[in-house]
Amino acid sequence: MSMKKYADDKVTFGGATLWYSKVVRAGDFYYLSGQPGADEETGVGQGDAQAQTKIAFRNAEKQLAKVGLTLDDIVKVTVFLADPRDFMLMNLAMREVFPGEPPARVTVTAQPVLDTKIEIDVVAYKAS
For 100, which DSSP code? Predict the structure, then answer.
């Protein structure tokens, strides 16, 4: 199986360069690193969990586009919620992002590193 790491953008936070690949391709699967529900410039979450879920998927969509993929190529999502009471708001946003057949999903409660209510990571698939 071939593997390619895409680390074309330096990721900085608090003046430090973070060391990870935004996307890793392993065979026909693509693993996207965590995408926060935060503004890309400020790193601050904006709005409620529903709004931040949409922001997180917009951020994911931008990263996927860099490797020729779309949100339709996502097969699995892991959602990290800061507050489990936000589950229904996140779920409403997921219905908007994936109006047809949604990907598989796991949701866990965890405090995201950035000042957000939500963070996601995704696995996408595209046959070569």
Answer: S
